[in-house]
Write a structure and sequence with these properties.
The complex is a heterodimer of chains A (about 290) and B (about 250). Chain A has 11 helices and 2 strands. With about 290 residues, chain A is an all-alpha fold. Chain A has a two-stranded antiparallel ribbon with strand order 1-2. In chain A, a hairpin with a 2-residue loop joins strand 1 and strand 2. Chain B is an alpha/beta fold and about 250 residues long. Chain B is about 40% helix and about 25% strand. Chain B is built from 10 helices and 10 strands. In chain B, a hairpin with a 2-residue loop joins strand 9 and strand 10. The radius of gyration of chain B is 19 Å and the shape is globular. The chains are: A mainly alpha (about 290), B alpha/beta (about 250). The interface between A and B is medium-sized, with 25 and 28 residues.
Chain lengths: ~290, ~250
C-alpha cells in the first residue's frame, strides 16, 4: 500500500508538471498554430534562471523564483519578436524549423553561461516529507500539485472568461476570419509566447528541485509533454491537462510496478498507440488524420 | 461613404475583376449581381482586404490600403460571408463580442493592471453583443454554441457580429443563399432597418427579386467587368444586362 501511495503521489506530481508543460505548448499552438520545439529549452532556461538568481546572486528562494519567471516572460516576448514575427505568413514548416534553431541557440547560450556541470535548485519546502498511508511523500511533490493546479485554473479562467481568451479561441478556429473581426494577431501572438514561456519556466522551477538541472533537462520533459498533448487531443486544454496526469501516472505507477527498466519509454508507447488508434486524442471530438 | 476606384484582381493570368469602380453612400443599399464567375465575391474579397488587389479604396474620403484586412476592419468595413464563418467553439455571445471595436484593457497585462475598468468595458461589450443578437432576433440563443445553430441562425449570428462591430460599411455576400422564403423576408427587413441606421450596405446576391426589392442602385458584373450601374429600373432594362444575365427574349 505504502509503495502504491508513493508511486501515485509521484505520478500525480509528475503529471501536473507534464500538464503545465503541455498547457504551455497548447496556448502557443492555439494562438499561433506554431508547435514550439524550443519549449523544452525554455523549461531548462527557467530552471537555470532560478538557480542563477538563488545560488549565484544569493536571492531568497521565492524572490529568485519570481525573478526567473519575470525574465521568462521577457524571453517569450523576445522569442516572438526574433523567431516568429519575421516569419509570420510563411509556411508552418519554416516556423517549426525556426523554433528548432531557437532551441539550439538557447541551449548553446545556457552552456556558455552556466557550463555543463549539473546544478541544484533550492526549494522553499526543503527536503521535508509527509507521511501518508505509510508512504513518505516529498513536500515538493505536494507543492508541485498545488501550484500547478492554481496556474492551470487561472489559465482556464483566462481562456474562458476574458477577451484575450476569446481572441485566442477564435484564432485557433479560423485565423483569417478572426483577423477580419479585428482580432489583433500580433498582440495575441506576443501574449501567447509570453504566457507559454512563463508556463515552461514554472514547470522547470517546480520539477528542478527533484532532480539535477542540466542542459538536456527540459528536452525529455518536452517530449513527454508532447505525448500528453497528443493523448489529450492537441486543441483541447482540459483534455491536455488530463493527458498530462495520465502520462504521469502511467510512467510512475506502471513504470514502478511492471516496466521498471522502461519507465521513461512508456509515455511514448502510449503516444504511438493513441496516434494509431485515435489520432484526434482521447478527449477531443475533432476528427484527426489517422496515420 | 465607400468609394472603390479601378479595382482589379488577377489570379495568375486570369483577370477576375477588371478595373471596377463603385461607390455606396450612407443610408444606401448597393446591389451587385452577375452570373457565376463574374467576380462578385472576388470584388468583395478585394474590398475587405483578404486578397491582394490593385486600385484605390476610400471610406469617408480616407484612403484604405488594399490587401490588409485589419486596416479595412479598422476603417469600419465589416463583411458577412457567403458561407457563415462562425466560431463553432465559442457561444453566440462570445462570437458577437469578438467584433467589438472597443479594445481597451483586452491585453493580459492591461486586464490585470486595470481590473475594474476591464470588467466595466467587458460588461459593456456583452451588453452591446446581446443587443445585436436581440436586433437580429436570436437573443434566446446567446449562450448556445456557434456549432449548435441552423444555417439560417448562423447567418443571423454573422450579421449580429457585424452590427456589434459598429461598421460604417457592411458587405453582405449572398446573404439569402440557403434561406427559405420566410427567412429571406426576415433578412430583407433586417437589411432595410440597417440602412435606416446610417450604414452603407453592399449586397451581392443571385436572386434578382431579392436585389430588386432591397437595393437603391445595382451594379452588374460580367467576366470581371462592370457592364451596368444605376437605379434598378434603369439597370433591368439595359440591353447588355438583359443579354448577359437576364437572358435574351427569343424573337425580340
Amino acid at each position: 500500500m505504502a509503495r502504491f501511495v508513493a508511486l501515485l503521489a509521484s505520478g500525480i506530481a509528475f503529471g501536473a508538471v507534464m500538464a503545465l508543460v503541455a498547457a504551455g505548448f497548447l496556448v502557443l499552438y492555439k494562438a499561433t498554430s506554431v508547435v514550439n520545439f524550443a519549449h523544452g529549452s525554455l523549461v531548462t532556461l527557467g530552471a537555470y534562471l532560478a538557480v542563477w538568481s538563488i545560488a549565484d546572486l544569493g536571492m531568497p528562494t521565492l524572490l529568485g523564483y519570481a525573478v526567473a519567471l519575470v525574465l521568462m516572460v521577457g524571453v517569450g516576448v523576445c522569442l516572438e519578436l526574433i523567431a516568429h514575427a519575421p516569419l509570420r505568413g510563411r509556411s508552418h514548416l519554416v516556423v517549426v524549423i525556426a523554433t528548432l534553431a531557437a532551441s539550439v541557440v538557447i541551449e548553446a547560450l545556457i552552456s556558455l553561461w552556466q557550463g555543463s556541470t549539473p546544478r541544484v535548485l533550492a526549494t522553499p519546502v526543503g527536503s521535508r516529507t509527509l507521511k501518508v498511508f505509510g508512504a513518505n511523500i516529498a513536500a515538493q511533490r505536494i507543492l508541485i500539485v498545488v501550484v500547478a493546479a492554481v496556474a492551470i485554473a487561472i489559465l482556464m479562467l483566462v481562456f474562458q472568461r476574458t477577451s484575450f481568451g476569446r481572441q485566442v479561441r477564435a484564432l485557433a478556429a479560423d485565423p483569417e476570419a478572426a483577423q477580419l473581426q479585428g482580432v489583433r494577431v500580433r498582440r495575441v501572438s506576443i501574449a501567447a509566447f509570453a504566457i507559454s514561456s512563463f508556463l515552461a519556466g514554472l514547470a522547470g522551477i517546480l520539477i528542478a528541485p527533484l532532480t539535477a538541472v542540466d542542459l538536456t533537462f527540459g528536452f525529455t520533459l518536452m517530449l513527454t509533454a508532447f505525448a500528453a498533448a497528443t493523448l489529450g487531443g492537441f486543441g483541447n486544454l482540459p483534455g491536455v491537462i488530463v493527458g498530462g496526469l495520465v502520462i504521469g501516472l502511467v510512467q510512475q505507477v506502471a513504470g514502478g510496478y511492471v516496466f521498471r527498466q522502461y519507465a521513461d519509454t512508456l509515455p511514448f508507447v502510449v503516444m504511438f498507440v493513441i496516434i494509431a488508434v485515435r489520432p484526434q486524442g482521447l478527449f477531443s471530438g475533432v476528427g484527426g488524420t489517422r496515420l | 461613404m465607400l468609394d472603390a476606384r479601378n479595382i482589379s484582381v488577377n489570379f495568375g493570368g486570369v483577370r477576375a475583376v477588371d478595373d471596377v469602380s463603385l461607390a455606396a453612400q450612407a443610408n444606401e443599399i448597393l446591389g451587385i449581381i452577375g452570373p457565376n464567375g463574374s467576380g462578385k465575391t472576388t470584388f468583395l474579397n478585394a474590398l475587405s482586404g483578404v486578397i491582394p488587389a490593385r486600385g484605390s479604396l476610400f471610406v469617408d474620403a480616407k484612403p484604405i490600403p488594399l490587401g490588409h484586412p485589419s486596416a479595412t476592419r479598422a476603417a469600419g468595413v465589416m463583411r458577412v460571408f457567403q458561407h457563415p464563418q462562425i466560431f463553432g467553439s465559442l457561444t453566440c455571445l462570445e462570437n458577437v463580442c469578438l467584433s467589438s471595436p472597443k479594445r481597451r484593457f483586452t491585453s493580459v497585462i492591461g486586464a490585470w493592471c486595470a481590473r475594474p475598468s476591464m470588467l466595466s468595458l467587458e460588461r459593456q461589450r456583452w451588453q452591446r453583443a446581446f443587443a445585436a443578437l436581440d436586433f437580429v432576433g436570436i437573443a434566446h440563443l446567446a449562450n448556445a454554441g456557434g456549432d449548435e445553430l441552423t444555417y439560417g441562425q448562423q447567418r443571423l449570428l454573422e450579421i449580429a457580429r457585424a452590427i456589434a462591430g459598429e461598421p460604417r460599411v457592411l458587405l453582405l455576400d449572398e446573404p439569402s443563399a440557403g434561406l427559405n422564403d420566410a427567412e429571406t423576408k426576415q433578412l430583407q427587413q433586417l437589411v432595410q432597418s440597417l440602412r435606416a441606421s446610417g450604414l452603407a450596405l453592399v449586397v451581392v446576391d443571385h436572386k434578382i427579386d431579392f436585389i430588386d426589392a432591397l437595393c437603391d442602385r445595382v451594379a452588374v458584373l460580367e467576366l470581371g467587368q462592370l457592364i451596368a450601374f444605376g437605379g434598378t429600373a434603369e439597370v433591368w432594362s439595359d440591353a447588355k444586362v438583359v443579354d448577359a444575365y437576364l437572358g435574351v427574349a427569343h424573337g425580340a
